[in-house]
């Protein structure tokens, strides 16, 4: 019997959360009934929180390293994508 290591378990959990957020996003986008759509969006928010928790757990343990971004790259991304986001 093979025992899974913490990294594998967390990796599987992260993959499951990514899939769940993708599905709930699709469900909420395709709801005609506003009450159901609202429920799907609430679940989606919860799923995003769980995904972030798993990601942070992996990152803290060194299982999902992310290099620090240069400030110029951050500024460039903000500039590039700011025109696609318009607050209501």
Give a quick precis of the structure.
The protein is mainly alpha-helical and about 90 residues long. The chain is built from 3 helices and no strands.
What would you say this structure looks like, in words?
- With 88 residues, the protein is mainly alpha-helical.
- It has 3 helices and no strands.
- It has helices spanning 6-29, 34-60, 71-82.
Essential attributes:
88 residues, mainly alpha, 72% helix, 0% strand
Question: What is the topology?
Answer:
Layout: H1 6-29, H2 34-60, H3 71-82
Helix pairs in contact: 1-2
Number of helices: 3
Based on CA atoms alone, the radius of gyration comes out at 17 Å
N-to-C terminal Cα separation, in Å?
54 Å
- Low-confidence blocks of residues: none
> Which sequence of SSEs, written as H and E, runs from N to C?
HHH
Structural class: mainly alpha
- DSSP summary, beta strand count: 0
Largest sheet: none
Shape: flat
Query: Taking all residues together, what is the mean pLDDT?
Result: 90
How many structural units, i.e. domains?
1
As a percent range, the share of strand residues is under 5%
How helix-rich are the residues, as a percent range? over 70%
